[in-house]
Amino acid sequence: MTIALAIYDMDKTITRTPTWTPFLAFAMRGRARWRMALAPWAAIAGLAYLAKLIDRAELKQTTQKWLLGGSVAAERVAELSAAFADHVVATGVLDQARARIAADRAAGYRLVMATASYAFYARAIAERLGFDDVIATESEHDPAGALTPRIAGENCYGPAKLRMIEAWMAGQGLDRQDCRIRFYSDHVSDAPVLAWADEPFAVNAHGPLRMMAQARNWSVLDWR
Questions:
Q1: What is the CATH classification number for the domain harbouring 133?
Q2: CB 148 within 8 A of CB 70
Q3: β-strands 3-8, 133-141: how paired?
Q4: Rounded to the nearest 10 degrees, what angle do helices 56-67 and 39-50 cross at?
Q5: Average pLDDT of the chain to the nearest whole number
Q6: Domain coverage including residue 158
Q7: Fewer beta carbons below 10 Å: N end or C end of the chain?
Q8: Structurally, how many domains does the chain consist of?
């Protein structure tokens, strides 16, 4: 029996915009407005990333530390994530993405979100959109269960995303040969997963991914 999986990236594939910076702003408004004064320090981390002095994982960890703090109680994280997910699903999800998700569900696909965004809020968004499973960047927690800025495992980005999808499949007892997989993404960083999928879709693709899709005969969709 063939198992049908429809795997979706989130930021700018399903959503109109990236979600990490909006989540930080949302959380600061709801938790500690004074932290907005620390935004310049987070901006310095952004410049360090552009200069290739730090990688994306370190950038995410640094911005979280400055703008959310060294630890956030689990209950507060859940509250912020739920409220942010409500906001994103109400105002920030592309209509054609909703339609495609519904069509895949109706066609019998198991819906999986695979995103570099943090799991603590990506899961809340995915739940509201009817996804079955989420593969995302996980976080470390302190002994009391509070969220810390440290990433647990890998940042779910680039080749790591494919490794994490394969690890998830192994954990679910899914053999790649028994699966029919379609994958949707807007960014060339997801080329490893697109090349691995049976049905790769370049969605809302930026220039480099559009060129790659044309060269490799991948389907190109625009949901914007």
A1: 3.40.50.1000
A2: yes
A3: unpaired
A4: 170
A5: 93
A6: 3-221
A7: N
A8: 1
Q: Residue 98 in contact with residue 126, Cβ under 8 Å?
A: no
Please state, as a whole number, how many other Cβ atoms lie within 10 Å of the Cβ of residue 150: 14
d(CA 152, CA 29): 26
Whether the predicted pLDDT of 44 surpasses 80: no
Calpha distance 55→116 (Å, rounded): 13
The string of pLDDT tens digits covering residues 194-221 is 999 999 999 999 999 999 999 999 999 9
Compute the distance between CA of residue 104 and CA of residue 57 in angstroms, rounded to an integer: 31
Is residue 171's pLDDT more than 80? yes
User: Are residues 183 and 197 in contact, defined by beta-carbon separation less than 8 angstroms?
Assistant: yes
Instruction: Go through 65-93 and write b for each residue having 16 or more CB atoms within 10 A of its CB, e for each that does not.
Output: bbbbbebbeeeebeebbeebbeebbeeeb
Locate tokens 């739920």: which residue?
Answer: 82
Q: Is 23 exposed, middle or buried (0-12, 13-18, 19+ CB in 10 A)?
A: buried
Confidence at 78, pLDDT banded by 50, 70, 90: very high
